Amino acid sequence: MKAIRLNLKKRSYGIIIGSNIIGLLGSCLKKLNIGTDAYVITNARIKNKYGAKVSKSLKAAGINLKFKLVADTEKSKSIASLSGVIEDIVDFDKKRKIFIIAFGGGVIGDLAGFVASIYKRGIPYVQVPTTLLAQVDSSIGGKTAVDLTQGKNLVGAFYQPKVVFSDLGLLKSLEIRQLRSGLAEVIKYGIIKDPKLFVYLEKRHKDIFKCNARALLNIVWRSSLIKARIVEQDEREEKGLRTILNFGHTLGHAIEAAAGFKKYNHGEAIALGMLLACDIGRELGLTGNKTCIRIERLIKAAGLPARIKKIPVNNIIKAYYRDKKFIGARNRLVLIRNIGRTKIVENIPLELIKKVLRGRI
Amino acid sequence: MKAIRLNLKKRSYGIIIGSNIIGLLGSCLKKLNIGTDAYVITNARIKNKYGAKVSKSLKAAGINLKFKLVADTEKSKSIASLSGVIEDIVDFDKKRKIFIIAFGGGVIGDLAGFVASIYKRGIPYVQVPTTLLAQVDSSIGGKTAVDLTQGKNLVGAFYQPKVVFSDLGLLKSLEIRQLRSGLAEVIKYGIIKDPKLFVYLEKRHKDIFKCNARALLNIVWRSSLIKARIVEQDEREEKGLRTILNFGHTLGHAIEAAAGFKKYNHGEAIALGMLLACDIGRELGLTGNKTCIRIERLIKAAGLPARIKKIPVNNIIKAYYRDKKFIGARNRLVLIRNIGRTKIVENIPLELIKKVLRGRI
Q1: Which residue in A30, A51, A148, B145 could disulfide with B153, CB within 3.0 to 4.6 Å?
Q2: Do B151 and B79 sit in the same domain of this protein?
Q3: ∠ CA A179-A85-B160 to the nearest 5 degrees?
């Protein structure tokens, strides 16, 4: 078991990482002293698998709980779903000392965190992420949001949890494709900040797919540490420091959106985005050929895509310009010099972006 | 013209108060440098009266604008209204540097501020309050919220504006009942913090109803100053310092709710709440009889009610216990020792509360 402290003055919190630690959740929450009544937002699959364990652990710590099931899809991040959850909370919250547990992947974490931020102008919540992607990325840093029909994550808040409780044992029940999607973010951390993590992944990616406890602990810990240190320096994405976390994401999101969020999951899309960022860096003379080759080799070894399937370049470009990151700002991408060294580059010629897209179709 | 600085480190802002200053709004916003495209949330009545002036002032400062009209009722604070406004903003917000202007009374300020807090995880907004109540109270301090069917203000955020711009000239078009409602809050400030303000109101309340510019400037300035200093010390109502602002509000809200938010407006209800708090204080030997008499005399002179019309005591008591301020906490009221000195008292016997209610029916 490992613990990381994320320092944000009054909003500081711990990130607890370990194998088969879900039984310790109750005592962890009791120590935090954030309330006696847990409103657990999750989905049916997770509740069926782990609901009884969570329930037992919380009750043993003197914490009442209610499970609220939401659909296991992005639809749970709609305004309609949001208001349904909040109205249900009001009914639960009678003479209680309530807090929220986000028990699920990124969708549930985003929804539950946003609910916690706005209900009664903010109540405590904790993240219990159940996917690799959520454990290494979305559960840390307090970015919460829901979607509008016009676009994803357009409504939200920066609102920090009281703890992130990552049980690696929960990852065993993930589909391989979900594990790979999370691994894409781990690879990203290696590329932007941690050459040793990158080398570790090159050597040990097979152990990860076997859910080897030590390998998982190592990658989740190192990734969480990187994310935590960046969030500490730039909590609200005002200083541009948090920008490097977007490596692979700008073009990745455009691909996800152009494919109607169906063909690719998040990790697959950002794997493509990272490769495209390498391609652009190579064209600009910024990224060495060897670096590009190592990254592509690792992405392929992780079972992530290296080529874009049947999406017209123009659709990707359109989605790219619709991205909210551009509004009021110039076109800007995170590129890399080497494994571990990023460079933010603005005003990349559209023709170059089109060229590298064509090269991967 | 007067200006107050509300100090909250990075979230500090100014409160500008003056007569017929709406023409200066554009240059004030330009100096703030918060954006080039204003999304002005207001209602039809205000837009008809002052829309052209605002438009001229902003355009002269190089700021584009769009008016968004919402209904002039509490219904504008529904989740449905909220999502309507946000979807409309997305359509306006194309390659722009957008900010929001809350141009109206408390309902519009609460809605617009909350929209600003959650759209893209927070965009700048300014308060241009058009009622006395909003100028002295709701526009200052960043408390924003919308309602649920189950209760008012259950969803919201603490989110500070970039400026509060109070034009006293706008108050001339208010109905006398609205002016009185705002005056109830001014009387509250006098009672809880400012004996000189209280004496001023005793002497000059007639000038206020005539919208005498100097009298309005004096009461809005002193009230804003008190509110600002309290907010500075307890921005998120965590330290209990902001609690004294609830003087008259706990029982006042219960009366408002028990009357279905129809019989009494906010100021009228809190006038009753303040008198009931005096009654309780007197019964407990805390508040002197002379103080009670002075307060009741001023409230009556301001045209505010001193007796509760046809609401069963039990309905008020039920609403009182439903109030969100009690969840997880004990029954607690702000009472007074003298004009200018408050005392927070917990566990007031229910029988005593019933007794003073009966005494005012």
Answers
A1: B145
A2: yes
A3: 95
